[in-house]
């Protein structure tokens, strides 16, 4: 039959085992979160550096350099239309 010392030792062993288990769980959660954060960061970098994102940047950069002029509608468009101004690309007119 177990004596008091054995029971106390068993209780301490159970407490220690629980603490180790909680510590391991916490460490695994922390590692899992770190991996998820890294994956999210990598995904963001992939999306930002994708060909579609680069072409959007190229389009946005070049948009302000287009040769464009605005002129009043003086018979270029049907008079029944409600157009008062026209935009014309100089290189294609």
How is this structure best described in words?
There is one protein chain. By secondary structure, the protein is mainly alpha-helical. It has a domain at 1-49. Helices cover 62% and strands 11% of the residues. The protein has helices at 4-48, 51-63; strands spanning 68-72, 85-89. A two-stranded antiparallel sheet has the order 1-2. It is rod-shaped and about 110 Å long.
% residues in beta strands: 5-15%
Structural class: mainly alpha
Give the strand line-up of the largest sheet: 1-2
Radius of gyration in whole Å, from Cα? 36 Å
- What is the overall shape? rod-shaped
Percent of residues in helices comes to 55-70%
Helices and strands, in N-to-C order?
HHEE
What gap, in angstroms, lies between the N and C termini?
105 Å
SS element count, helices: 2
Q: What is the average per-residue confidence, as pLDDT, rounded to a whole number?
A: 77
| Poorly predicted segments | none
The biggest beta sheet is recorded as: 2 strands, antiparallel
Number of strands: 2
């Amino acid at each position: 039959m177990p004596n008091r010392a054995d029971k106390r030792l068993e209780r301490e062993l159970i407490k220690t085992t629980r603490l180790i288990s909680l510590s391991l769980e916490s460490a695994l959660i922390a590692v899992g979160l770190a991996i998820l954060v890294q994956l999210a960061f990598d995904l963001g970098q992939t999306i930002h550096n994708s060909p579609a994102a680069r072409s959007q940047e190229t389009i946005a950069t070049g948009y302000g350099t287009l040769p464009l002029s605005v002129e009043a509608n003086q018979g270029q468009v049907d008079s029944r239309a409600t157009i008062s101004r026209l935009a014309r690309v100089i290189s294609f007119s």
